[in-house]
Design goal:
The protein is of the alpha/beta class. The protein folds into 2 domains: about 170 residues, 3-Layer(aba) Sandwich (Rossmann fold); about 70 residues, no CATH class. About 40% of the residues lie in helices and about 20% in strands. The strands form 2 sheets. Strands 6-7-8-3-9-10 form a 6-stranded mixed sheet, with helices on both faces. α3 packs across α4, α3 runs parallel beside α5 and α4 packs across α5. The chain is globular, with a radius of gyration of 19 Å. The chain binds adenosine-5'-triphosphate. Adenosine-5'-triphosphate (ATP) binds next to α1. Adenosine-5'-triphosphate binds next to α1.
Length: about 270
């Protein structure tokens, strides 16, 4: 496994003179970490993620990925390190068959045919998309299209994956699949960065959160600390996870972020 640590130093990004999306972002993410980017709409989460695979380039400051300065890496080189799923599946899907869509990323990375085949089959299976492999993605429902886009990213087999709002529209079975995928990615020591407004999912699945507001990092640390900090949550228009609210209701000594810790604290 290639070690692809991410280091951003004072990254600034302006879409225009009027719109500064990122202000002095400094961040280190080590290979194998799982983190969540959280914050209100328009706080800069997607703009930050797009800097990791070269879709956007900093207006100021600099980034290093796997020890190399990002400005020295072209989009093709960055795509081998960081794969990013889009928030809206319709912005990502371009093929008329699910199989072809999932194969599109690894084919573009010029992997050998056999490798592409096995990565696609593995990814379809992880997301329970095997029976839909021949379907047209545009005939599928929103959450199925969402799963297709996530499967396409996982199939690229990059050391870093970024999922933008992966839980949107997912039912309990699909959330279970996603959690199993995260476990699999952890076994493979992949770095997983999740952009999410789903605080229940973040609390249960992710140990470190980076909270953005107005293009600045307001907090970077353990999710248990963030979810205890009501002022931080309020200033980021985020609500406490339900399980944490329930532990406050029962006046538990420990703030529970998972059903398991809740039951333990209740006992
Ligand atoms: N293509 C663009 N052109 C101009 N401004 C943009 C563009 N994309 C985003 N912005 C602006 O940049 C800022 C950061 O937006 P960004 O999409 O990164 O935030 P976000 O936290 O991902 O939001 P959301 O949760 O709604 O997806 C916002 O002010 C947004 O309006």
């Amino acid at each position: 496994m290639t070690i692809v640590d991410i280091r951003l130093e004072n990254v600034v990004f302006r879409y225009s003179e009027e719109v500064t999306a990122l202000s002095n972002i400094s961040l280190i993410i080590h290979q194998g970490e799982r983190i969540a980017l959280i914050g209100p709409n328009g706080s800069g989460k997607t703009s930050l993620a797009k800097h990791l695979n070269g879709l956007l380039r900093p207006s100021g400051g600099r980034g290093r990925i796997g020890g190399q300065q990002t400005e020295k890496l072209n989009v093709a080189a960055l795509s081998r390190k960081v794969a990013l799923s889009f928030q809206n599946p319709d912005d990502q899907i371009s093929k008329r068959r699910v199989w072809d869509e999932v194969a599109f990323g690894p084919e573009n990375l010029h992997y050998a045919k056999d490798r592409v085949h096995s990565l696609v089959e593995k990814s379809l299976s992880l997301f329970a998309l095997g029976p839909l492999a021949s379907s047209n993605p545009y005939d599928l429902g929103y959450s199925e299209r969402k799963r297709v886009t996530l499967a396409s990213i996982v199939a690229m087999d990059t050391p870093v994956v970024v999922f933008d709002e992966p839980t949107a529209g997912m039912d309990a079975r699909e959330l279970g699949l996603l959690k199993a995928v995260l476990d699999q990615l952890k076994k493979e020591q992949k770095t997983v960065i999740i952009i999410s407004h789903d605080m229940d999912f973040v609390a249960e699945q992710i140990g470190r959160v980076v909270c953005l507001n107005n293009g600045r990092i307001l907090f970077d640390g353990p999710s248990s600390t963030a979810f205890r900090n009501k002022d931080l949550l309020e200033s980021c228009s985020l609500r406490q996870p339900q399980i944490a609210r329930l532990s406050s209701f029962f006046e538990l000594d420990e703030l529970a972020l998972t059903p398991e810790t809740f039951v333990r604290a209740l006992k």
